[in-house]
Amino acid sequence: MICSLMNTNKKFNIFQKVGSVLLPKKRRSSRLLFYGFLVGVIFVIASVKVIDYTSTDAFCMSCHVHPHAEDNWRLSTHYDNPSGIVVHCVQCHLPPRSSFDHLTAKAVTGFRDVYAMIFKDTESINWEAKRQLEAALKHTYEEGCISCHQNLFPLQLSEEGMHAHLYYESNREDLNCLNCHLHVGHYSEVAYEPIDFGFSQLKDEPDTIFQEATTVEQFERFTEQIPGTSVSFDMVPIPGGTFAMGSPPNEPGRRDNEAVQRQVQVSPFFMSEIEVSWDMYMAFYRETVSEGRSEAASVRPLDASDGIDAITGPTPPWGSPDQGWGWGDRPAITMTHHAAETFCRWLSQKTGKNYRLPTEAEWEFAARGNTQTPYFFAGNPRNFTRERLRNRIFGPETEPISNYVIFRENSMLRTQRPGTTEANPFGLNNMLGNVWELCADYYAEDAFAHYPEGQLIIDPKGPSTGSERVIRGGSFKSDAFEVRAAARSHTRHDQWMLTDPQIPKSIWWYSDVNDVGFRVVMDYPVK
Fold this sequence. Notes:
2 domains, paralog of FGE (formylglycine-generating enzyme), four-stranded mixed β-sheet, alpha+beta
């Protein structure tokens, strides 16, 4: 009995001890859960507050070093509009808040901006280039446009806007809202300036109006004079010769369309020292402008019996083709291959000579300047390219290539005037870089392979048919690999005309490319 009671007391004491231990543990766990929940709620509330605060226009403007960003925003239709609706920074520069990607994009954007503020020299940033379409597409989200503009056909939409939005609806994979509405978020004076194509220059009587074209009797440099205008330009003699067209297999940056090399001979010819300038092209435009005529009428074929007045010239473009960079002796850009060929016909009839676009073989021979290296100057493309990982991290070398070529690393992402770089051995300026140059040849990926192996190819003219044309030389947007003498590319007519709102589309002006121009050549002996 006594033993039984003792055992019972022991069990009771044990349970009492266990209970005394377990009870406080449960309370502590409950408290921990409560405090954890409270901290979580506070964290969530604080996070929302931080997200809200860092999404305000005031916060964006306090951090960003972009000059005039706020002023241009307040002048834009996203701020200054009849309805009084204000579109805020994050509505364009982040995905919609309901989107899963909103916070991710916000974190990435914030990290990038803070990194730039701390480690980059913001004074050296080319802000004008950041306002171009290519850059804007990286920092603006089309989902934001659509979330606000859900009805693309409001009652007040013009007929022109209706056609444009119908076209957008059927081409959403290829088009972005910014293609047509680049400056609605940040006002640009240049985008809304009236286009006069230098007609204002005609208010003052020019000092000299040339009456006759230059007579050419010797195979030497001469200055061509365009009769009836004050425009002249230099032509450089290019001696005939033989060279290996294309690039060797071990050339850095080589593309498949440069294979295989063939031995080519070109006859002597003249080539313009610089790319066709706005001064030259506007002389043609003023004399042949087709304002009021239909695009269909301007495709009438020309023949040798056509007089100067019979040449139907360009219709006015949609937008300012100089991009706000200036006219004068800068290279003329945004004109189509048809426009370039028509300019050559006009120039031929004005001067009595045979001006035309160069063949691809003539262009490469002239660009090489009797060299067979990647460039006409010494240098390894690997040291200049951004395609090499090491150069992406530490930056590419810029010497000596910047002395000779206007390309992505030194162009400020716009065309440059001739004379800012040194000429090649033939005395030609900007043969590499500045703008791609149109050639007469149709494009074929394997054009060289169609020439007989082991034979000397004399004055080749490329494929007899095709849909696109060859362009050569690279541009102010190009990487160092693209401005090698052997680098080839081609027009992309449909892609470059996507946002042209006209029906039918212009045959004269590309609406979606701003780094393609041309230069002219002339036969010798003079015909």
